[in-house]
Every structure is written in structure tokens, then in C-alpha cells.
Structure to design on (300 residues):
């Protein structure tokens, strides 16, 4: 799972135009309409800057813009907004600083800049050492760097904090633990953990990623029909959760095309692959630690 971005909340009542625009943007984002949210938030930012609001208000808008761009899959733009937000709270040791550091790290992570992402997460943990979400993100970055023992330690720390807080254990953490086991070729153990993760996760973008990862594990273990079923379900859930043009959709399409090619359905595979490439052309290539990495051409 890509852990949900942390949110900076506007606590003051809506008195000014920029505040109304901001709240409209947040509402649109919550409704899954990131492009409309972006337009409202851009206007909010311009209006806020025009009346020289306090930095704390600008931080709220920049945070919302970053989350909006992230939701739309525009990770580089998201990083820019999060870094601007961080510049206004850096060194204050506040919850807002921890949020800005974490969100900037998440955007860097999505762009494959895992060393810088790790730095951001460790700085955030200095402010909030008992934050399960940040430990989770740190574990993901360590996984991308193939530091598997450290990654597992971070993920289990996240689980421990959740359990001690009586929170529901996140399927996302279990999913990432499965990734660690799979990377070390312990596929059956990974599949068992991933089954638990999927059961604990509601339908949507997060579970769609898990289903796609389970498809890879099932394929490796020889369960081809189950693997294809997982990919079909993953594609449907991902398109419903984000949009047919989101980069996460392309990841699933590439896997689905490979399965079709391997199983002798070349014409269908070419159509699916063409669609995936069209999405790729609109986005920078990403490394996503919530996906198991595999070259389907190496599978029999």
C-alpha cells in the first residue's frame, strides 16, 4: 500500500475567499476529482498569497495541492508542493513539520529517489518517533534499497505501534512484509502474508496493488488461472479507484499483457500493451515499493 498522505488541517473557520476555495478543493479531492480540486486549490493559493496570509495558512494549501497532484499520479509536481510546504515549517519540531517531511518523502519514494526519501522519513521520526505510518514508509524505502533486514525491522516496529495503540493492523504493512519475503524467494510465506493483507483491505487502489502482487506470486507457484483472475480483478478495482490513465493502471496492464503473451494470446497482449505504453508516455517512469518487481518473460 502506498500509505495515505498525512494531512495538515485548517482549524480556523472559513472567513476569507481563499479558505472557501481551499475547502472546496479538499471536498473535491475527497470525492476523487483531483483535477477539479487542483483548480480550486491553485486559486486558493493565489488569493492567499495576494492577501499575505500567515505561513501556517500557506502550508495548509501547499499540503493539499501536493496531495492532489499525488492522487493524480503527478508525483514530481506533488514533490514540489510538499517541499515548498516543508520550507515554511523546517526546524520547528511540530506535527506540521513531521507531516511535510513525510509527504515530501512519499513523493520522493514514488519517483524512485529512495535515499532522499529515507532521509526525510528518519527526520520525521525524530519529531514523531511513535508514528506507525512513518515507520511503514521508512521500511518501504529500505526495501527498495534491498536492505531487507532493516526493512523488516521498520515494518514490524510499525505493526507493534499499531497493536499497542489498539489500532486495526494495516493490510498495507502485511503486504510490504510479503514483498520482503518474496524478494528473498520465500514465495509461499509471502503468499500467506499477502492473503492476510488482502482480507484486511477494502476494495480500491491499495487492494488492487495487492491483487496484482498476489498474481505474480501465484504465477511463480504455478497457479496460472488464479494469477490471471487476480490481474483481472486488480485492473477493475484500480480503474474504479483512480482513473483509466493513472500510472498504476499501466503497471497492471503490463503484467496482464505479459500473461496473455505467455499463454498464446498475442493479439490481445499487443492491444493491452499498446494501452499501457500510452499511459507510460504521459508519466515519468516510477519505482513503487508496494509492487513486487518481476520480469514476466523469465517465468515459464
Amino acid at each position: 500500500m502506498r500509505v495515505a498522505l498525512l494531512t495538515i488541517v485548517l482549524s480556523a473557520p472559513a472567513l476569507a475567499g481563499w479558505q472557501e476555495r481551499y475547502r472546496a478543493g479538499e471536498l473535491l479531492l475527497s470525492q476523487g476529482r483531483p483535477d477539479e480540486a487542483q483548480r480550486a486549490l491553485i486559486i486558493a493559493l493565489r488569493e492567499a498569497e495576494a492577501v499575505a496570509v500567515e505561513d501556517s495558512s500557506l502550508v495548509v494549501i501547499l499540503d493539499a495541492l501536493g496531495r492532489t497532484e499525488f492522487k493524480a499520479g503527478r508525483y514530481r509536481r506533488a514533490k514540489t508542493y510538499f517541499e515548498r510546504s516543508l520550507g515554511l515549517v523546517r526546524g520547528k519540531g511540530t506535527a506540521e513539520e513531521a507531516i511535510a517531511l513525510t509527504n515530501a518523502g512519499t513523493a520522493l519514494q514514488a519517483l524512485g529517489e529512495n535515499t532522499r526519501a529515507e532521509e526525510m522519513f528518519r527526520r520525521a521520526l525524530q519529531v514523531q518517533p511513535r508514528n506507525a505510518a512513518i515507520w511503514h514508509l521508512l521500511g518501504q524505502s529500505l526495501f527498495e534499497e534491498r536492505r531487507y533486514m532493516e526493512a523488516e525491522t521498520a515494518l514490524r516496529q510499525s505493526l507493534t505501534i499499531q497493536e499497542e495503540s489498539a489500532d486495526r493492523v494495516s493490510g498495507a504493512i502485511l503486504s510490504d512484509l510479503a514483498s520482503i519475503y518474496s524478494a528473498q524467494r520465500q514465495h509461499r510465506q509471502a503468499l500467506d502474508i499477502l492473503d492476510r493483507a488482502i482480507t484486511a483491505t477494502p476494495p480500491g487502489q491499495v487492494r488492487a496493488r495487492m491483487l496484482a502482487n498476489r498474481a505474480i506470486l501465484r504465477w511463480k507457484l504455478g497457479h496460472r488461472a488464479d494469477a490471471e483472475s487476480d490481474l483481472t480483478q486488480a485492473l477493475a478495482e484500480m480503474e474504479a479507484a483512480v482513473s483509466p490513465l493513472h500510472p498504476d493502471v499501466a503497471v497492471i496492464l503490463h503484467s496482464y499483457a505479459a500473461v496473455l503473451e505467455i499463454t498464446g494470446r498475442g493479439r490481445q497482449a499487443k492491444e493491452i500493451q499498446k494501452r499501457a505504453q500510452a499511459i507510460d508516455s504521459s508519466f515519468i517512469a516510477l519505482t513503487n515499493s508496494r509492487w513486487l518487481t518481476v520480469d514476466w518473460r523469465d517465468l515459464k
Observations:
- The CA atoms of residues 46 and 172 lie 36 Å apart.
- Residues 1-128 form a domain with the Serine Threonine Protein Phosphatase 5, Tetratricopeptide repeat fold (CATH 1.25.40.10).
- Residues 285-300 have pLDDT under 50 and may be disordered.
- The two ends are 28 Å apart (CA to CA).
